[in-house]
Amino acid sequence: MMRRVTDALRRAHDDERGVVLANVLIFGTVMMLLVATMIAVSTSGAVKSASDRNFQNAMAAAYAGLADYQAKLSNDNGYALYGNSDAQFSKKTIPPSTFTGDDGNVAFTSSGSKWASVVGSTDQFFRYEVDNSEYSGKGVLRVRVTGKSGGSVRSLVANLKGDGFINYLYFTNYESSNPALTGSSCVTAYQWQTSVGGKCQAVQFAPNDVLDGPIRTNDVFTAACATTFLSAVEQHDLTVRSAGGGCSGQFKGGPASTVPYLGLPALNSNMSQETRTDIPATVPRPGCLYTGPTRVSFLGNGKMTVWSPWSKATQIKVSSSSGAVTASDDLAKAASLCGSIDALQSAAGATIPTLPANLMYVQDVPSASNNDNTWAAGTVPSKYSNTYCSTAVTVTNGKATTKANQPYSNGQGFPAAGEWINTGRSNDFRTGSVSDTYSCRAGDLFVSGGFSGAMTMAASGKVWVTGDITYGDPTKDILGLVGQNAVEIYNPAECTAYPSTRNGVDYTRCTDGGVGLLDRSRGAKLTISAAIASNAGTFWNQNYDIGPQLGTLKVVGSIAQNWRGAVATLGTTGFVKNYVYDQRLLTTAPPKFLQPVSTSYGVTTQVEVQSAYTASGSCATDAGGGCR
Fold first, then answer.
1. CA nearest 415: which of 394, 398, 396, 391?
2. Is the pLDDT of residue 175 over 60?
3. Within 13 A of 177's CA, how many CA atoms are on the CB side?
4. Phi-psi region of 104 (alpha: psi -120 to 50; beta: other; left: phi over 0)
5. Under a CB-based contact definition with an 8 Å cutoff, are residues 200 and 176 in contact?
6. Cis bond upstream, residue 260 (ω within 30)
7. Is the dihedral of CA 430, 433, 434, 437 positive or negative?
8. Strands 325-327, 500-501: parallel, antiparallel or unpaired by DSSP?
9. In terms of pLDDT, which residue wins out, 534 or 409?
10. Residue 263: what pLDDT?
11. d(C-alpha 493, C-alpha 439), whole Å
12. Which end of the chain, C or N, has fewer beta carbons within 10 A?
């Protein structure tokens, strides 16, 4: 009996020992699985961490490439003409992008293993491809930048535009007027230059002026209490000067801030290069050249009538050896775009479409004998009669007449019949000289009407705005007006009372009470839709200090000028300003518009796109098998 009990206990003990062994085996297996899992998770995490780091670094490399290209543009505005015409992004454009070379820049590589290195990094690289097809037309560059790090490649596309004066509703170099126009003997200087004696006084913003857009000057602004600034004010220092009353305007866009100097070019003559047909790499789409006083009437239907009696060649080529200027080889093409010479010189003018995304330039009548637009001494266009150029006229103060009420013009109708020319005061009488105001040989442009299209109009002399200029479609139409010496509102005066002298009436002078406006009456308004620039002159209202208080001068666009131009006197004569910035000018510009002397380039839009390349350097392909 005892033996059976002992055997039973032994068997129970042996059974328990087997259970413990099984538990040990199971626990050990679980632990091994946990360790293996932890090793696997740790390894995959390390791989994922490296992949994430490369992914982020690839985009950082793309941003570094974009900054590199921006820096090169800022150092050299001509860098827009460098690139690689074989790059897929460049050759897809319509028209294709054109380049003068690649400047030896490895970042322009479009295939293979070569990449530009990010400065300070050993594992980040970039390439960029440029689309400059809209640079001459709109001042806009597109660039596709690809960054690489490890096996990760990422691309972005950015639009770049120069930070120029067209980015502002109102830009001036000096806040004083041009002494040559005002007849003052003052010294041109900035208002903040305290050590200059006899400097010209600032032109101030009036109480009812409203400026709806960013404004900037290399000088400092002067404003009345009720002047309203709805956007940013940028100038040489922080303080807008007060025009009186202890305050300096209402700043709805924040207080004034300081900005560096922004230079206007001394001349706009380089714009005439856009009419040459012999440099296709630089000027792939030549515009139109007109000579002498030229008048343009926009017809509101995408067409315009152009009168330019002195013009002989509207598209040109220039000899690199002799400098001779001759007409382009394709005269029919020039006539189709710019108007035939016969029509331009006729009384009816040439009616043509507004230039498609292009520029017209009006030059002085040249004097060089090897220029096709030169006229021999003593010769004038056949339609010219009763003008300064066809008749010897002795101009005395006020009016140019050989007989009573017989005016002489510039061949385009200026001065108008009965117009009195005012350029100053002498002994309480108004005086003037017609020949100093209108010339029959200067590159002056006279323009008005309803505009449709995209175009820039530039003149080596003045641009005269003779009436409203309005857009047919404000979302699509865009116009630039660039006058070397001025962009001026035509506002003619008349004289109705002459002073009496011992010998009778003196018709060469006009009494103060006898001077008035010839065409405009009290409350008359004017609208100008355009980007306006006078690189060496000013934007102003002719005879701003004569006649009654006019209505609102509405400018929709932008204004840039070397000197500040007056459009009114405080509350008694001239126009009230209502200047509104055309927001489209932040991202585009009128075709071939005036560029600053130097500028930085800012990104206007930016978006990540599918990678343009693989990590090996070959092009990435689209669904059809072609390079992206």
1. 398
2. yes
3. 17
4. left
5. yes
6. no
7. negative
8. unpaired
9. 534
10. 87
11. 18
12. N
HEC string for 380-429: CCCCCCCECCCCCCCCCCCCCCCCCCCCCECCCCCCCCCCECCCEEECCE
Q: How far apart are CA 569 and CA 562, in angstroms?
A: 20
Q: What is the reported pLDDT for 48?
A: 56
**Residue 175: DSSP 8-state:** S
Task: Give kind and range of the element (H or E) at residue 217.
Answer: strand 215-217
Nearest-angstrom CA–CA distance, 589 and 192: 31
Is 5 a residue whose pLDDT tops 60? no
Nearest alpha carbon to residue 172 among 233, 230, 231: 233
Residues with Cβ within 8 Å of 319's Cβ and at least 6 positions away in sequence, in order, are 325, 326
Is residue 576 helix, strand or coil? strand
The pLDDT tens digits of the residues spanning 528-557 come to: 999 999 999 999 999 898 899 999 999 999
Contacts of 522 (CB under 8 A, 6+ apart): 548, 549, 550
Cα separation, 134 vs 71, whole angstroms: 20
Q: Report pLDDT for 172.
A: 95
β-strand partners of 554: 527, 578
- Which residues are registered as beta bridge partners of 429? 426, 511
Q: How far apart are CA 230 and CA 226, in angstroms?
A: 12
The phi and psi torsions of 425 (rounded to 5 degrees) equal -125, 150
Residue 160: C-alpha distances to residues 68, 141, 164, 627 (Å): 13, 5, 12, 24
- Concatenate the DSSP letters of all residues of 466-496 into one string: EEEEEESSTTT-EEEEEESSEEEE---EEE-
Most confident of 46-50, 124-128, 621-625: 124-128
Q: What are the tens digits of pLDDT across the range 558-615?
A: 999 999 998 998 778 999 999 999 999 988 889 999 888 766 777 888 999 999 999 9
* Dihedral, 521, 523, 528, 529 alpha carbons, nearest 10: -150
Residue 591: count other Cβ atoms within 10 Å of its Cβ: 25
For 69, other C-beta atoms within 10 Å of its C-beta total 23
Q: How confident is the model at residue 213 (pLDDT cuts 50, 70, 90)?
A: very high
Give dist(CA 229, CA 61) in Å, integer: 41
pLDDT of residue 431: 52
Please choose, from the candidates 461, 434, 271, 484, the residue with its C-alpha nearest in 3D space to the C-alpha of residue 364.
461
Which is it for the CA torsion 440, 444, 446, 451, positive or negative? positive
pLDDT, the chain, mean: 86
Share of the chain above pLDDT 90, in %: 56
Look up residue 231 and give its amino acid.
S
The confidence score (pLDDT) of residue 428 equals 47
CA pair distance 614, 607, nearest whole angstrom: 19
In tens, the pLDDT along 232-248 reads 999 999 989 998 777 89
Residue 59 and residue 608 in contact, taking contact as beta carbons nearer than 8 Å? yes
Residue type, 79: Y
Residue indicated by tokens 């030896």: 104
Distances from the Cα of 571 to the Cα of 69, 107, 339, 491, angstroms? 50, 59, 45, 18
- Cα–Cα dist 32/374, whole Å: 98
The whole-angstrom distance between residue 247's C-alpha and the CA centroid of its chain comes to: 33
Per-residue DSSP letters for 224-240?
Answer: -TT-EE-S-EEESSS-P
| Cβ atoms 154, 55 nearer than 8 A | yes
